[in-house]
Please model this.
Amino acid sequence: VPPPQLVKAARDVASYLREKARENALFQVVSHLDADGIAAASIISTSLTRLNARFHVRIIQQLSRKSLERIPRRERVFVFTDMGSGQLKLLEESLQEDTVVIDHHPPEEGGGRLIHFNPHLFGLDGGVDVSGAGAAYLVAREIDVKNRDLSPLAIVGALGDRQDKGKQRSLTGLNAEIAREGVEHGILQEVKDLIVFGRETRPIPVALEYTTDPFIPGLSGNHGACLKFLVERVQIPLKAGDRWRTIAELSREEKARLVSELVKYMLGPGNMSADEAQSIIGTVYVLSREREGTPMRDAREYASLLNACGRTGRTGLGLAICMGERKRSLSEAAEAVDEYRVKLADYINWVEGEGMKKRKNLYWFSGVGRIDVRMVGTVASILASSKKYQSKVIVGLAYSNEEDCIKASIRLGKGGENVDLGELVRRVMERMKLETAAGGHELAAGAYIPVGKEEEFLMLLDEELGMGGCGGR
Ligand SMILES: [Mn+2]
Model:
């Protein structure tokens, strides 16, 4: 059960938004371009629609002075979702307008003039207990009890943010609470099943090929190998007549065969740990009112779809889908997912082939002019998760149009636990006397650096790593 003070705070934000809607205010929703951010924005947008309120939505990659300047101001009530808690002072300085922040990131001090809703303020951990979409949902259901039908979107957001850290990849904390509400409402189901990409929509070999979480060496990204594996080892019918079957269609026995062969492969030729192999089975969240065979039926696939929409510049499409559009948008969404996959594979091949450079204490690549800035973090994360870069630091660079800066995404491979990347990056920014956005935590950090300062940034980061107790790795 959520702490009563948290419910009370959500209720206060809700009555504020209702009041402003009654005054016919124009709302400006601003949110983050990942799946959680898009889901959060759509939860608030749907709630505003139901209040007959006027609103605009802007989806951005980074909240900064620059990105704020680009948003029209006049007489708007700003509602930030899945962002803002880390920039309370910036928001208070730059916005004279009424401003609401609904976020789950660790809050900074200050921002007393703002209306700020964040589960951290009530002793919860926004890293695993609840997502940005979850926080938005807590407010939405206080706006109107009808908005309880939006709980599946809160689950989509949480899965998009990889908050499924419980047993068998289940959601915990407030997320589990919200899932239970969805189940009670008859709009969500929790089942133990194979967790692969596109279980509702893709031919089985493609589903396997596209599965990168966990990344299965030799199978992930390799269509031919997946087909061969299925035909030779698993031996289940892959087609029904002319049509390819999906994972969701497999019988219990067929699925059991697939699982046991997969696990054998992962532990054998795949060279994966038992933990990693086990993570192929887990809690699947099914949006039971969505049509079977569509990507919105499986909350994880829904999240990948939103992520692909955001990172290929189709944020409007992602929002439309979350707000109920189910016609032309589905084929467009499929295009977004394919484009995203193809780009990602191309980027990774390029980095692994020629892009990756080495320094004393880190690996780095410059994707400037080559890699879309919205995807550089994902590229670095995928590489960091591979065995090759175990306990290594990877820095990916790309040019951000939004910020007119170089974005650096820094990731730490598994096994490098005695470094805090967020702390190191903050120290480097201090030494460079930069006040551009930067931050992060132990395993992942990011920074915006003026064009031309990349070399200095890499040099100082390398130096800090050398002093930070992980030199020589
Ligand atoms: Mn989030």
Summary: The mean pLDDT is 93. The radius of gyration is 22 Å.
